[in-house]
Amino acid sequence: MIQDINGNEITIGSYVRYINTGTKGHVVDIKIDGNDTWVVLDNDLMYRPNLLEVLEEKKEEKKEELDKDELIKKLIEEGKIEVSNDIDACGT
């Protein structure tokens, strides 16, 4: 049985995080080469299992996508930016 840093079993399809960088991904393969075991993630990189942590996969909320004009309008309405004609040119 292949285990993560906390002793949890790592299997193909597990959602894991590399503890050194925070990289997350799904396990697509497990390779055993002599005495070495490697876990291959969906980013095509191989990691030692003792440096991975099995995570509970959470569905990420779909972020609202706005075009530039919609974003500016939303920020003005929320009071996060102000629009003024009373400005001076820089450097004059």
From TrEMBL:
InterPro entries: DUF2098, UCP037053. It comes from the Archaea. Pfam families: DUF2098 (PF09871). This is DUF2098 domain-containing protein. It comes from Methanotorris igneus (strain DSM 5666 / JCM 11834 / Kol 5).
